[in-house]
Write a structure and sequence with these properties.
The structure is a single chain. With 124 residues, the chain is low in regular secondary structure. The protein has a domain at 3-44. Helices cover 14% and strands 0% of the residues. It has 1 helix and no strands. The chain has one helix spanning 3-19. 8% of the residues are buried. It holds the Pfam family Zf_WRKY19. It comes from Aphanomyces stellatus.
Amino acid sequence: MTPHATEQKLATFSIANMLNPLKSTCNVHACDRAVKRNGVCWKHGGARGCTALGCSNRAKARGLCWTHGGGKRCQAPECVKTALRFGHCWAHGGGKRCLMDGCHRPAYERNGNCCDAHKHLLCK
């Protein structure tokens, strides 16, 4: 890339970031990921880290990663678990469900997105 082309690309990124920050891309060469913070994507240092002592994971919410309680909370009364899907934790109906018609049990990717009972029948 010529120096002039590089300057144009940086100018385009700067203008794009100012006009539409939700659609801007990472300032690292050849990276087309969305900007998270400071002009770079999560992979190039734009995400915040977990604040738990000794943890190097990315923070999800409240400065914590999933392991340390980040993410959205389950909407069930008095539940403190992390919500997976539809605002609920696994125990209260969040998470994936079995692909077999009429089955509402939890599904696992290791079972081809089926429950343990149907993993050998249809779902692989």
